[in-house]
Specification:
about 425 residues; about 20% helix; 2 domains; elongated
Length: about 425
């Protein structure tokens, strides 16, 4: 090999090594921002305080979150929306900064699921979010595309731990359109209306009594109460032959103490369609003066129940002073009484807002109220007694007349001469 050939090999080696280094750098999902990204935002001049309508669209589905006096979900008949979720999403979009610039042409949008969603795009389409003002004009928009995944390093015992999302590709369809990789995954941004509902709900506290009336069988009805918050439950109209088991009523301590709902029904839903025309009615009274009347339908096909609630309250207006109350304590106690009463009245006002809606709740939410009267009673034991006059069991002993003649005579026969001699020669047994 001459010097010229050797030089050519060296040059080729340097070129191959440089190309390999460049390709390896391109393949790595590095989140180190480039110089042109410093301080940049994905959406420039995002009008955070002007947004009054969010339109979120995926394929053929969409959800609209509209702000009038409050945020509401259009696809759920104007039911209040989850303000925390909406404000958190808007804030993230306003602050959103890229971690990597993605140089791709429009033909590659499908690979990153950044195609504008419509009926024909299928899995290649992304999630379009349009931000509109009070006049319904779209001021900004963004398409949320494919999630960027990273392989887990595995646990203590080795082996792959699977992939997990570390970011998401987004497209800002301004002029010119730009594709970015961001560190936010936006996993909760979907077109399910029930996901955006405000989950604030009524809350029953310090239960004093519970009465349940079933629509079909009066013998299933029951009423249980207690005298103090820590006292034992007592079943009304307990019969002499019945035994009430207090432990079986322990679930009433927390009945509807933190209820939740899965969805809301249309206000136009007829009682015959929801099953509320023949509902079970539960009435819960509390030590604080609240009265909750809850109507519960039968099960739906998905093991849920429709539920309506009516909340009333009666609170004392004046405080009764203690027998030995000192004058210096009166001002403090009166102030505490007033503050407590105001909180109860505010709670009543908030919970009465739920009266006009019909909710879809899970089975476990109302299970404690759907017990029947017999479910609180001790199981009856078998009181059948054995018949003391029963005849003894006949094992088939032969009748007396069939006994052989030789054993009928109980007198032993006289000893033979040989046996008499043996008896005389035998030594006398000492005591």
């Amino acid at each position: 090999m001459n010097r010229k050939q050797f030089s050519i090999l060296i040059v080729l080696g340097v070129l191959v090594g440089g190309l390999g280094f460049y390709l390896s750098r391109k393949q790595k999902e590095s989140y180190a921002p480039s110089s042109f990204q410093t301080g940049a935002k994905v959406i420039k001049d995002f009008p955070l305080n002007e947004i009054a309508h969010l339109r979120i669209k995926q394929a053929t589905n969409e959800v609209n979150l509209v702000h009038a006096e409050n945020w509401t979900v259009k696809e759920r008949y104007g039911y209040p929306a989850n303000f925390t979720e909406i404000s958190d999403f808007l804030r993230k979009v306003w602050e959103l900064k890229p971690v990597q610039d993605v140089e791709v042409g429009k033909s590659q949008y499908g690979r990153l699921q950044l195609v504008t969603p419509n009926e024909s795009q299928g899995t290649n389409s992304g999630t379009l979010v349009e931000f509109k003002d009070a006049k319904e004009a779209t001021v900004k928009s963004i398409i949320l595309g494919k999630k960027a995944m990273k392989e887990s390093q595995g646990g203590m015992f080795g082996g792959g731990g699977g992939e997990f999302p570390v970011g998401r590709y987004v497209l800002v369809p301004e002029n010119p359109p730009r594709v970015w990789l961001v560190s936010e995954t936006f996993s909760t941004i979907e077109t399910k209306p029930e996901q955006w509902l405000s989950k604030d709900f009524f809350k029953v506290e310090k239960v004093k009594s519970v009465s349940v009336t079933f629509p079909d069988k009066a013998t299933n009805n029951w009423s249980i109460s207690r005298e103090t918050e820590s006292g034992e439950w007592k079943l009304a109209d307990l019969k002499p032959e019945e035994k009430f088991e207090n432990s079986k009523a322990s679930s009433l301590n927390y009945a509807l103490s933190s209820p939740s709902f899965n969805d809301v029904a249309s206000p136009d839903l007829k009682p015959e369609e929801s099953g509320m025309a023949a509902s079970t009615v539960a009435k819960l009274e509390t030590f604080e003066g609240f009265i909750y009347t809850v109507n519960i339908s039968g099960k739906t096909n998905e093991e849920n129940h429709y539920l309506k609630v009516n909340v009333q309250g009666s609170f004392p207006k004046d405080r009764t002073p203690g027998k030995d109350e000192k004058p210096e304590d009166k001002e403090k106690l009166d102030k505490e009484f007033k503050e407590k009463t105001e909180k109860l009245q505010e709670k009543l006002k908030n919970e009465q807002k739920f009266d006009k809606w019909t909710y879809l709740v899970s089975k476990w939410t109302v299970d404690a109220l759907l017990k029947e009267r017999k479910d609180f009673l001790a199981e009856k034991k078998d009181d059948a007694k054995k018949d003391s006059t029963a005849k003894p069991v006949d094992f088939g002993a032969p009748p007396f007349d069939t006994v052989p003649p030789e054993i009928k005579n109980l007198t032993p026969p006289p000893p033979t001469p040989t046996e008499s001699k043996k008896a005389e020669s035998a030594p006398e047994k000492k005591e």
